[in-house]
Structures are given as C-alpha cells and as structure tokens.
Write a structure and sequence with these properties.
The protein has about 325 residues and is an alpha/beta fold. The chain has two domains: about 130 residues, ATPase, nucleotide binding domain (Nucleotidyltransferase, domain 5, 2-Layer Sandwich); about 170 residues, 2-Layer Sandwich (Nucleotidyltransferase, domain 5), CATH 3.30.420. It starts with a strand and ends with a helix. Zinc ion (ZN) binds next to loops. The site of zinc ion (ZN) has 6 residues, from loops.
C-alpha cells in the first residue's frame, strides 16, 4: 500500500518546527524558525503558513493525510482554538485550526503539546507496542497525556492528562495552579530546584555547592543527577524522593485507569536509572495488588522532535 504522509507543526514559544512525516515516523523534510512571539498573532500565523507551504512543496506527488499542529497553551476543540499560549504577545483566543483549513483546504487538527508528544511516543516511540499508557512530561512543570486503545484521550473539553496536578498531600505545598499538594509543586524542575536550594543550606558537605560554582541559583536537576552518580548522598536522596513522589502520582492514575505502562519525557527525565527504579518501586507499592504485574516505566524516545512528530501523528 502507498505510504501516507502528514505535515506536523510544533508551535512553541521559541521555535516553529514544521516537518513532513511519513506514517512510519520518518522526517523527510523539516524547517525551523524562531517564533515571532514578541510581535503579534498575525506574524506567527503567517510564519506557520509559510512553513506549511514549504512542506507542501516537499509533499508533491505523495499521499498527504492532513496537517496537525501541536501548540503551547490551552486548545479548545472542535475548531482548534488556541488560548493564551504562554509568552505569546497579544494572543488570547485564536481559531488556528479553522484559519489553516481555510488557507490549505484540508483537515487540520490542533492539540496541545503534551498530547501531541504522547501521540508521538504512541505512534513512533517508546509506547509503540503499548495500546494503553500514561505519558508524563517531567520538565519545568509536570504534564502528560493518556493513550487509550492507541488514541489520545482528551476528556470532554480537551483537558485530560493533567497528571502534574494530582495532589499527593492535601495539606501540602502550594501549587501555581491554585491547588494544594500537586505533585508538580514537589518535582517540577522549578520547584525541585527551589526546594533543593533551601535544603542545601543544611548540607555544606554536598558536592552540589562545587558543581554550581557556589551559585546555587544556577542549580538544575541535571546537576543533581551528576552529583548523585558521582556519589553525593544528598543529591541521591533528593532525586530518590522526587522519584517516590512522582511514583505516588503515577500510581493514582494506574489505579484509576488500570494502565500498566508509563512513558516519561521532558527535561528532567534524563535523570539516572536509579530514579526510574525508585519510580517503578513506588508505583508498584501504591497500586492495588492485582494491578502490579506488568508495571513498567520507560524513557521517552523522541526528545525535541516529539511535538512535531506527534502533530503529524494526530492526522496519520
Ligand atoms: Zn497544581
């Protein structure tokens, strides 16, 4: 059968990445532009149109299934309305999907970047062999997506998969979202670094002080990982605790949906294997006994291309 292709656009705060992707996940054409987020929505919309026109050139003679767009912000469907993507000037609510359908005369699907990354891992990455799994983005914040029967589960209004805002302590830390004890408020990069800096004042022996050259504000989870692997007990404990807390939240999802597999991507997910082992052990501990067999936690495979690949995956 003839191979199908789709155009995938990853609209982020810093870059617009557009690719022509085959149904087997091969990137056959790609462009990357710095997002004109400082200008106005019209400028960004023309950027997107231009990159899609370029990709269409590359798609000549090929069977094109459609266009998918992964965007930051909240996406309302149907209509692919993109609401207030962070750092985009003057962008409140724009029917991006409709606008693109008018321009290109074909189906355009818009979804948020976390859902798109989940779709990418499902179709082309670590989740390929699993029809059902939880995808977690462990980065600045904690986000995610739910894959059920090989499809993204969006919920009634497109907001499903907010694993970062599962509360792990109803009397716990304040989260940016307004709620209390969200797992993001403990293990999201920003929060994790902040809490670690506070604790470090009582741990002058930690090699972290040296690693960041005395400048604690430069501390990032990767430093924790480096220090831990070089034998720093303090860093190891911080990351083990983060793994446990994330495991508790993941277990809640497993219990609710009887999922067994979690795929983790995002900036912090590069931490060492010992953290993954802790996540798995904790998840198993907190799920009901009959659900324990097959509990697996995997690293995402697609890295920075996940948004673009997943955007294409939305229509493939
Ligand atoms: Zn929250």
């Amino acid at each position: 059968m003839e191979q199908r292709y789709a155009i995938g656009v990853d609209l982020g705060g810093t870059t617009v990445k557009t690719g022509l992707i085959s149904e087997s996940g091969e990137i056959v054409f790609q462009t990357k532009l710095p997002t004109l987020a400082e200008q106005n929505p019209e400028a960004i919309i023309s950027q997107i149109k231009k990159t899609i026109h370029d990709a269409l050139q590359a798609a000549r003679g090929k069977h094109l299934a459609g266009i998918g767009i992964a965007s930051a912000g909240i996406i309302e469907n149907p209509g692919g309305i993109v609401k207030s993507p962070p750092n985009f000037k003057g962008w409140e609510s724009i029917p991006l999907g409709k606008e693109m359908e008018k321009e290109f005369g074909m189906d355009v699907v818009v979804d948020n970047d976390a859902n798109a990354a989940a779709v990418a891992e499902s179709k082309f990455g670590a989740g390929k062999e699993y029809p059902n799994f939880l995808f977690v983005i462990w980065g600045t914040g904690v986000g995610g997506g739910i894959i059920l029967n090989n499809h993204i589960y969006r919920g009634q209004f497109g907001g499903a998969g907010e694993v970062g805002h599962i509360s792990i302590d109803y009397k716990g830390l304040q989260c940016n979202c307004g709620s209390i004890g969200c797992v993001e408020a403990y293990v999201g990069q920003k929060y994790l670094s902040k809490r670690t800096i506070e604790k470090l004042q009582h741990h002058p022996e930690s090699s972290l002080h040296k690693i960041v050259g005395g400048n604690l504000s430069a501390l990032e989870p990767i430093h924790l990982s480096q220090a831990a692997e070089a034998g720093d007990e303090f860093s190891r404990n911080v990351l083990l605790e983060a793994g446990q807390l994330l495991g508790v939240a993941i277990a809640s999802v497993m219990n609710m949906l009887d999922l067994r597999v979690t795929v983790i991507g995002g900036g912090v997910s590069a931490v060492g294997d010992f953290v993954y082992n802790e996540i798995i052990a904790t998840t198993k501990k907190y799920v009901l006994t009959p659900l324990r067999p097959g509990i697996t936690v995997l690293r995402a495979k697609l890295g920075n291309d996940a948004g673009m690949l997943g955007a294409a995956g939305l229509v493939l």
